[in-house]
């Protein structure tokens, strides 16, 4: 249990640093001049944040950073329930910590807010979110099934099975 709690603490730190990409979004949103730049800026801030933090943390915790990924790996038997519970708590606590940091470190109202477009109802939004999340966890499972060890393993999470079991 001590090892699982230590890994969960490191998962908290990794999740917090990953989600700090929102500070980049918030700090620079006023500089975009078109909708395409706006969307590209958001995507690049989050994806560069993810790729760097996964690269740093994957050997220690597997760089899950999402309760959805943790649940998937629990269901397929990669992580135990004893590791799953603290991981989820750590990931949610990391998200809360980043929310506070973004509010404290950046001025004004949030620039990257989520709202439904006209004509999209809540049921459609939930389906879209579930579909996208399914794609994420499927990608993790498909890439994690490979046992290759390369310098680029954290980018594609090749080593997730070997480090979590």
TrEMBL record:
It is a multi-pass membrane protein. InterPro entries: Aquaporin-like, Aquaporin_transptr, MIP. GO terms for molecular function: water channel activity. It is found in: Membrane. The keyword Transport applies. GO terms for cellular component: plasma membrane. Belongs to the MIP/aquaporin (TC 1.A.8) family. This is Aquaporin-like protein.
